[in-house]
Amino acid sequence: MFVIAYLANYNGMASWCWEAAHALHELGQPVLLICAEDIELPGTPAVDILRFNPQDYSQPSSQLFSRIRQEVSNLSGQPSNFLNLLHHHLQQRGIQPSAYFLNMASLQHPTISTPQYVVGWAYPTSLMGYLAKVGTSTGWSFSKEAVRTGLSFLGWWRKDWSAYRSVTAVLAVSHKLERELMAQDIRVHVVHPGTLVRPNQIPTSSTSPCKLLIAAENLEDPRKRVKWMIDALKAESQPNFKLTLAGAASDAFQHWVCSNDFPAEFIGRVPRDQLQDVMAEQDVFLFGSRLDDWGYVLVEAMGQGLSIVAPNLSPFDEIVGDAGMLYSLSSSQEFRQKVHELSRSNSLAQRQAAWSRANRLFSRPAFGQSLLTAFSETNPSGAKCPVETC
Predict the structure, then answer these.
(1) What interhelical angle do 296-303 and 12-26 show, nearest 10?
(2) I need a labelling partner for 172 at 20 to 30 A (CA). Which of 189, 204, 234, 384 fits?
(3) How far, in Å, CA of 95 to CA of 89, rounded?
(4) Dmax of the chain from CA atoms?
(5) Bridge-partner residues for 242, per DSSP?
(6) Which contacts qualify for 146-155: CB closer than 8 Å, 24 or more apart?
(7) Distance between CA atoms of 220 and 346, rounded to whole angstroms?
(8) Can you spell out the DSSP letters for 123-143?
């Protein structure tokens, strides 16, 4: 049995666990998905679920001593005790995993002999590469929060490299990350995180006006740069599009966006499975984030047949390939130009290219097979898959 952990929040790492478990299950492999006790699952699971909250992996206490201990732990390069506790818990239940697939490097534990695979997310892998993300996330401003964020990134860098050197193999989300790790003699496989790609339902004729979509948990989160994208679109003198925005937004933000008859509609927060239905009704997905180690929403949009407009950054360039439009991060003019090109032209060919790329590289079958290949080629005991499909 393959054990997938740890689904404990609602971000891309949680999506990785959900999709990895279902990708392996759909290839006929026995899977156990480990979830936090209080987490709401993104859908009805087709795999076995184990709710597990280890005592020392809970949220930090508000007491001063506990907070100090948590800060020191964050800075340390030592792994958490999560896998040690989980492994003991599974043994008590008579479960002997064939391998652990872990969505965070800090979850691994060097005392466990079962093969362990951790996802490698962060690129570049150098300390300066990690710390540069602090500046990006804080706007290069100096504050107490920026210092704390910097210390957290230092701790993540130390934990990641400690794990990379001790686990069975790293599952790198991009080829750029793979090359950096291989240069340091790290055992690594490229495993692009996948998602459910639905059958191709792209219409045979273009729609007018072009239907654009922006989606984020919080549309006013500055890291997502939704306001920046809308500022750029508002400069379009004769917009030939209609914009749908999915996510939380204040009344004031909605009023600003829709002012001066700007063609936009807010639909509020949408659950992940329903968002894919919304995506299927659109033409182009607009993405502005400058700080995502993968970009699951891009893969999901491409899987619904949407053309993509995204920053020319890693790993977005590897996700989009030649099936979308990339723009310079700071150029609102270039962003607007790319949107203009798609909204004024026949985008069906671009949409078809996006769906085909997602189906080939980022579908559940592709994801699951990549995981099985990594396992069969790297596990030290030469063990076979629980069900022989490797």
Answers:
(1) 50
(2) 384
(3) 9
(4) 67
(5) 211
(6) 151/71, 151/74, 151/75, 152/74, 152/75, 154/75, 154/127, 154/130, 155/74, 155/75, 155/76, 155/77
(7) 31
(8) SS-SHHHHHHHHHHHHTT---
- Quick check: 302 and 280 in contact, CB under 8 A? no
Report the C-alpha gap between 39 and 37 in whole angstroms.
6
CA angle, residues 13, 301, 195, in degrees to nearest 5: 45
Question: Amino acid letter at 321?
Answer: G
What six digits make up the tokens of 151? 């210390």
Q: What is the mean pLDDT of each run of 10 residues along the chain (390 residues)?
A: 95 95 98 96 93 68 54 70 96 96 96 96 94 73 78 92 96 97 97 93 80 96 95 90 97 97 96 90 94 90 95 95 92 95 79 95 97 92 69
DSSP 304-334: TT-EEEEES-TTHHHHHTTSSEEE-TT-HHH
Q: 275-313 burial, b if ≥16 CB within 10 A, otherwise e? A: bbeebeebbbbbbbbbebbbbbbbbbbbbbbbbbbbbeb
Amino acid code (one letter) for 181? L
Enumerate domains of the chain plus CATH numbers. Answer: 2-194+363-378 (3.40.50.2000), 210-361 (3.40.50.2000)
Amino acid at 310: A
